[in-house]
Batch of 2 targets.
Target 1
Amino acid sequence: MSLLEFSHVSFTRENRTIVNDLSLSIEAGDFLSIVGPSGSGKSTVLRLCCHLISPTEGTIHFHGQDLMRFNPMELRKQISYCFQMPYLFGDTVRNNLEYPFLLRNKPVDPDRLEELFAAFQMSTSNLEKEIQHLSGGEKQRIALMRSIVFQPEILLLDEVTSALDVANTQIVEKVIEALNQAGITILWITHNPEQSRKYANKILTIDTGEVRSLEAIR
Ligand SMILES: Nc1ncnc2c1ncn2[C@@H]1O[C@H](COP(=O)(O)OP(=O)(O)OP(=O)(O)O)[C@@H](O)[C@H]1O
């Protein structure tokens, strides 16, 4: 049984088909790059994966069960996402990063937060900063940290390095690679052809909402 299985999934809005008849199997441990021109439906595919939106046709199964039947809060713990425009509460970095603990009724683990700052080579002094005082690249890294405070089964990443300089892109790539090596399934959208091939074992190319190719490269 595949970890995540799309069967003939379509997503239509305002008489426009944004994803058309997508069938795809994602196995545990996969690192899937999703590539394609702007507006081809890549982000929509990730939104479908975590039930931010529902297919208008077809089915998505997670662990063999209909994804639409999962409790959304429970699903977010297993399938975590980080998008291009990081959504963070207009609050402090600390409150953003402590939120995943609150959600699980668990005490905040300061060691885990320190570990994350170390992995992203950022200072923990950022914890007391207001989100609005962070740069775009800092916000991106904090949003990514928040999505992996507790390791999900699947991590969905939408152009998470687009606001980063070369050095920080490398840091983030290494964190993502290590997560995949630790068994986390990664689906990521990137516009950078070199990046799309560097870590992935599969590359999905989509155009106008349809699969152009699914290539296994490792
Ligand atoms: N809920 C929606 N309602 C109406 N149109 C939508 C909706 N979601 C996406 N679209 C449209 O569908 C198309 C695909 O959007 P999507 O964000 O999935 O593309 P993308 O491949 O991720 O693009 P980019 O690379 O520019 O981020 C776009 O034209 C977008 O405007």
Target 2
Amino acid sequence: MTVVTGNDRLHQQLQAGAEALALDLNEGQIGQLMDFLALLQKWNKVYNLTAVRDPQEMMTHHLLDSLAAVAPLRRHVAALVGEGRGAVRLLDVGSGGGLPGVVFAICCPEVDVSCVDTVGKKAAFIQQAAVALKLRNLHGVHARVETLAMPFDIISCRAFASLPDFVNWSRSALAAPHGVWLAMKGKHPEDEMATLPADVQVFHVEQLVVPGLDAERCIIWMKPV
Ligand SMILES: C[S@@+](CC[C@H](N)C(=O)[O-])C[C@H]1O[C@@H](n2cnc3c(N)ncnc32)[C@H](O)[C@@H]1O
């Protein structure tokens, strides 16, 4: 008789989710995502990284939710590389326990990902995850995003702030002239979009479907004009 453990079930769910999202992930990447889930579970008790405590809920609400943004991100990265941009740098703002930043670093090894958070222990957790998962393209940064001035090609966020606050606070870290913002949102944020600064343009609203999650999700892509 084969015994199916809770971990096996989560592994199967992750694999099925990646397939539903048409994501080409190798076994190493699936393994890193499972290891990241285990790290989140383990250190959440100490560092208070996320209000989500149940491993099953962490899979759907954190991992699969973040994975839903990977194909759109890969498309944008491919376009940047096609324009002749070398190493693509991404900043994930208010990354907390590393969402979506760590998932992006695992799934897009060619992208250099920095996760910034004002809470020191969260940035330290990202550094720890980078070592444990052997992710040389992942960095934890302890700072307020408003203080960063290094140029990033893509600045992402999930569950961070309103769109106007997100772009205003992170603007000095956006590379000119090609840098873009990738904001992961739930319901289409019409009110927030209406109050964006005049020199910030929404150039694409991309609907997302998260496997196993019956909820509205979208990416708001923005750029300075
Ligand atoms: C609600 S959590 C979201 C965490 C993660 N992105 C997620 O989706 O689970 C927001 C995070 O933003 C961080 N934060 C708030 N203001 C910030 C700022 N000005 N610069 C950087 N991080 C900030 C908080 O410490 C917190 O970890």
